[in-house]
Predict the structure.
Amino acid sequence: MSGDFAKKASKGWQFFQRAWFLPVAVIALFLLVWALIYAPWDSPAAPAWVQAIGSVAAILSAVGISYWQYHQTSRTNEDAAREYMRRAHLDSAYANGFIEALSMVMVDGKIPRNRLDRMIRLVKAVYEDMRVYSHIQMPDQRFAANWQTYLRSLRHFIEEIERDYADETGRTQVDAARHLEIFQSSSQMLNEAYDRFMVGTARDN
């Protein structure tokens, strides 16, 4: 709910930014036309009129350039934030495939201990790679919240694997199906949040 409100507020502010600029431009154009038609160009005060018109034109140019720069900067920042979130989502897809494959191997229960240790280290590396993405920098609050849940489930997945495999049998004794179910649930919620954001972005554009 708060995310939707923030989005509506942002749209309202953008509309206001567009709304104020148009009337000002119309008024400025009207004044310029009026000055060109009715200004006493033949009088001794003509240089003052010219200077006044030049000042107004300079002010409008400065305002227009500032507005354009602000708009371009905002668009650039929004594009960068979307790209940041897109990369995080792509990396999560890689992690999902890797962990699901690992879980299937562990369910089989025929993997040597040294090989499993190596795979667990790889899973830890995947987790560390995912942590570089900060939810604070993501443009969608729903995705950001699910991202935190996703990382927690990934961390718990690793911790439970290590704890359940602390024996010295040399074979996996992990209830991988249960861990995988929890992880897949958080992954599904993350994907749904991402899809919803992308649909909303496409609609706005």
About this structure: DSSP finds five helices and no strands in the chain. Residues 21 and 63 are 9 Å apart (CA to CA).
